[in-house]
Amino acid sequence: MPIPKTRWDIFCTVVDNYGDIGVTWRLARQLIAEHGLAVRLWVDDLRAFERICPEIDIHLAQQSQQGVEVRHWPSDWPQTEAADVVIAAFACQLPSAYMDAMAERQQPPLWMNLDYLSAEDWVTGCHGLPSVKYKSVQKFFFFPGFQPGTGGLLRENGLLERRRRFQQDAAAQRQFLHGLGVDRAADAQLISLFAYENAGLASWLDALAADSTPTHLLVPEGRILGDVARWLGVDALAVGDLDVRQALTVQVLPFVRQDQYDQLLWCCDFNAVRGEDSFVRAQWAGRPMLWHIYQQDEDIHLDKLDAFLALYTKGLSPAAAEAMSGLWRAWSAGKPIGEHWLQVRKHWPELQENAEQWCLEQGLQADLATALVQFYLNWI
């Protein structure tokens, strides 16, 4: 059944620096490029948006970027006609005037709460269920996820094939890294590090520096830079800085746009990522990874971490699963991970194979944008 020409509104309040806007920006572009929809993306923080899309003019209330109508979400809400489909990303609260506009439509819109990504068992039972109702407008839960019965993950058409070709093209990788000022250290494993502040970092850097295998650590601008600087014994780090300590080369990269970040992940042998957007993109890289989950009150984030680990390590031997789980749990608790890293290295070929297999298995499911469109088609 073809989808009729419809207007979709996506609302995003920036809470976690770049994860919220990263997800909604990818989604908006994909809905336009692959499904031919008209999409408005309402964002309350254009400065955060500018970091991942430098073309954004932070002073404009309305602009067009890559086919997406980008609107600044002001505190003084303008009179606006509600769209056919309304997505409140990550449970953000819509403006009351906009909710009234939804209720005033002759045909109420489909209103969905696009929730946070989780591998917890209860997600499949709640996905697609009705939520609250505002006057005549019913809201529905929509959960991204890793298992059938969820909304899947953001994945553009042809992404895995582009990744495969890039990872098989050594010249393309060298050219990309050269554009970032990276001359890969001889025989070094390449690791990317994008994380929140973490007290456990120093022990990992100690292990990498003392290792017999050289490591070239690429650190994009971000919150972890302060911890890296302290380990190096310097006051601060800036883009372009490069420091060598025994077997470890540390290099600071600029904050790159989304497509470049994908290629960075594809180049690396191991990726440390954070939040939600980079977490999903690291899975599509098909390489071993480490996730710094966003911390929540009462440590409920650890339940999400364990739920994902149970799925991600299911195909590993008990020893490899234990090593990977120990590394992830220690990292998200801010504990030393040097010894955990040494255990992980003992199972490297198995972990590489598992990462690729996990990627391919997830690629068999419907992607998030397609699942949203199908939900709309079923609704109408």
Automatic annotation (TrEMBL):
<comment type="similarity">
    <text>Belongs to the glycosyltransferase 104 family.</text>
</comment>
<dbReference type="Pfam" id="PF10093">
    <property type="entry name" value="EarP"/>
</dbReference>
<protein>
    <recommendedName>
        <fullName>Protein-arginine rhamnosyltransferase</fullName>
    </recommendedName>
</protein>
<dbReference type="InterPro" id="IPR016633">
    <property type="entry name" value="EarP"/>
</dbReference>
<dbReference type="GO" id="GO:0003746">
    <property type="term" value="F:translation elongation factor activity"/>
</dbReference>
<comment type="function">
    <text>Protein-arginine rhamnosyltransferase that catalyzes the transfer of a single rhamnose to elongation factor P (EF-P) on 'Lys-32', a modification required for EF-P-dependent rescue of polyproline stalled ribosomes.</text>
</comment>
<keyword id="KW-0251">Elongation factor</keyword>
<keyword id="KW-0808">Transferase</keyword>
<dbReference type="GO" id="GO:0106361">
    <property type="term" value="F:protein-arginine rhamnosyltransferase activity"/>
</dbReference>
<keyword id="KW-0648">Protein biosynthesis</keyword>
<keyword id="KW-0328">Glycosyltransferase</keyword>
